[in-house]
Amino acid sequence: MIPNARYPRTNPEKIELYALALTELRMRLRYISDIASSSLPDRIKGECCYLQLRLSVECFAIGMLAAQGDFKTHKAFTKYYSPVEIFKALEIAYPHFFPKPSIPRKMADDIWHFDDVGHGNCITRTELEKLWQQSGDYLHRTSLKKYIKNSPAANYKPIYEATERFWNLVRSHQIFLSDHTSYLQIEIGRDDDAMRCFYIHLDQKNGTARIERYNIELINPRGP
Length: 224
Hints:
Elements: H1 11-36, H2 42-68, H3 83-93, E1 100-101, E2 103-108, E3 111-115, H4 125-139, H5 144-148, H6 156-170, E4 172-176, E5 182-188, E6 195-203, E7 208-214
Antiparallel strand pairs: 1-4, 2-3, 4-5, 5-6, 6-7
Helix pairs in contact: 1-2, 1-6, 2-3, 2-4, 2-6
């Protein structure tokens, strides 16, 4: 684990924190279908599903900070908790911070192609920000008027759609890093605990790339 719980500095520390955040995100997305099929009252099921989506967006934002974060220079990275504000701060420092879907395909020995279409139908930054804000509105009853108002039955269609689009992005994606010559590639299993993490260091002069692989072992990963 990261020594003394300090902000990550090295590539191994950054990728470990990123993997930890993605592991929690994966667990929360998995719980949504279990919650929706449970015998809980309908309103509570809807609240629990939106809570998992909201916290998944927060885990995702933490992952973005871990991947890019220069925590010594950018003090805002250590203060913000809202994904909306985190994304704004990241965009100022690293305009291309938001990941894109990317599936590696081996074409021949030592030759790989990265399919940037990915799994398709992926959630966007704007949708993640909107999801986080709307889930807060759904969860919080901040006034008597809102409390006594008849609560509509939970609508699971947007919950399922957001969950699927979230999965489509995180299960195999790539992040362009601040040095402008490296990528972080992450692949996580949806139905198992598999996770592959590696850096891709580009040699633009020779048209080649060096792969820096990491074997991730998360002991007692954080869960809900």
